[in-house]
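Feature request, filed as a ticket because there's no other form

It would be nice if the structure record came with a short human-readable summary line next to the tokens. Right now we just get the raw output. Example of a typical job, pasted below so the devs can see what we mean:
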Amino acid sequence: MIDTGRNAALAGRPEGLEQLRTLVDFALGALHDASLKRGGPVVAGGPGAAAAAMGRFLDGGAFLAESPSPRRVTELFEAYAAGATDLAHPAAVSRMQCAPTAASVAAELLAAALNQSLHSWESGPFALHLERRLIAEMASWAGFGAGASGTLTPGGSISNLMGLLVAREHALRESGEVSRSGLTGLRVGPRILCSAAAHFSVARAAGFLGLGRDAVVPVPVDDLGRMRVAEARRVLDRFGLDELPLALVATAGTTDRGSFDPLPELADLAAERDVWLHVDAAYGIGALFSPSLAPLLTGLDRADSVAFDLHKFGWTPASSSVLLVRDEQHLRCLDQQAVYLNPADDEAAGFTALLGTSMQTTRRSDAFKMAASLLTLGREGMGAWVDRCHGLARYAAARITAGTDLDLLAEPLLSTVIFRCRPPARGVADENAWNAAVRRTLMARGRALVARTKVAGPDGEPRVHLKLVFLNPATTEAEIDELLADIAAVARELAEAGPDEGGNGSTYGD
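Raw output as currently delivered:
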């Protein structure tokens, strides 16, 4: 048995590597056993079962117990694996959360064992150069030139936050360095334009940046969920002298429909009005790797900043998010000199770090796992996997359309499929509650993980819809047929049971 107590070894030491080898072998065994026992994408029983499993593990004890217990470490591995969502399961289609490649997971393990950081040269020499080279290559994906720069971040929301931070500094540059002097005394009210279908992180970022969520002005979208450029122009025209358009945020791949705002036209508008153009391509970046879908990102090279994730289309462990800026000078607002981390004479001698390109100090080497996936798949492999996921979405949409139990909202643009369960002839008490209950019932039974959203119906009222997100290229058409049959069967069962089954009112017995 591994002694993880008084004789616990550090991972980088020879004895630690032996412990690590044994623990990793055990962990892999726990993953294998959990996959066999789970029987679906998640353990049946819902929230109660998950909480009970946690309670059984702790059993009234504590994580920081008085005495070390190696056995408890291996039991934790077993409990965690057993209670986790299996993202590789074909019925795990609720989130933009991919199953990562084996190579990226191995890189993640090595990165954790070495625990490099990017805030000072001696904390990760190779890791620093790895991120710089990867950022430069990613900037070329976006069509940016040699003067571009960027940074890796903990997620798409932070990438959007940083993009809008840089936009704020650029728009308010005549007021001085806002990050130093603050927003007090501004004579204008900053405004951020984004589509009505933009990610919630845009408004959240405005709040964090001291601009206020009310500074975000939503622009109407068309029937495909794309920002209406004419409406954006009208919004800009209506601004008074005391309002300053700080940024125009375009979305490339909205969370629900996967819609792409018209980037060329928005780039024209941003250039005409001298407004920063930020593109949130957290999800839509996958189109870049597909020859048939890449035209959706035409105009990306004209953005001032771009955010995207590789823990969606990229098949790397979270977090693998990126912020790119077309001109590296715009990251100067993040410059930071700390005498104990990056003194000027060390920097001049070549011992440079990445402290001045990030909001973080200690920062892990996420570039390592991303590079491992890219090297494993190559551009051809990435494109093939994206096309496969797109094809799976189109297949699911076709099957929904051909059937009689489900109603498709629209043809999928990337890899998401939005639909509703069609009520039986006699109807149900509340179609929204019924559709929501179908999703919860599937989760509680461990059969499938399906997402939900709200889309306005013909009467303008928001209606609950269900959503499938395909990021697993190994999924088969037969497995999709089985998933759709499960959804339809549960819908019929709940409709027949009625809303008062089990005394749960409009929850349809879920």
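Something like this underneath would help us a lot:
The chain has three domains: 29-84, 116-363, 378-507.
The first helix runs from residue 14 to 38.
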